[in-house]
Amino acid sequence: MQRHLASLAAGTAHHAAPHRDGDLDRFLASLESAWKAGEVRPTHQPKATTERSWRTRKDPFASVWPELVVSLEAGRT
Q1: To pair with 4 at 20 to 30 A between CA atoms, which of 24, 36, 41, 60?
Q2: What is the phi/psi pair of residue 31, to 5°?
């Protein structure tokens, strides 16, 4: 490969166009609709979310919740 590049640079060899086989033609044809599939890399797909049954932090109203319930119920009447 390096000899070929050196001879191209020296002007002693001519570059021939590469042969396009069926795989390349199929690939190029698939580009027309590839954008419809969106991003296919697994790192770019949204993670599946599930509901969790545990708290992620301490309840800030735990110590005053009974008082809040009484206040809220009194405001309804």
Answers
A1: 24
A2: -65, -25
Give dist(CA 59, CA 65) in Å, integer. Answer: 10
What is the CA 19 to chain-centroid distance, rounded?
A: 34
> How many whole angstroms separate alpha carbon 48 and alpha carbon 43?
12
Q: Is the pLDDT of residue 44 over 70?
A: no
23-43 pLDDT, tens digit per residue, is: 888 888 887 777 776 666 667
How many CB atoms are located within 10 Å of the residue 7 CB?
13
Helix (H, G, I), strand (E, B) or coil at 63: coil
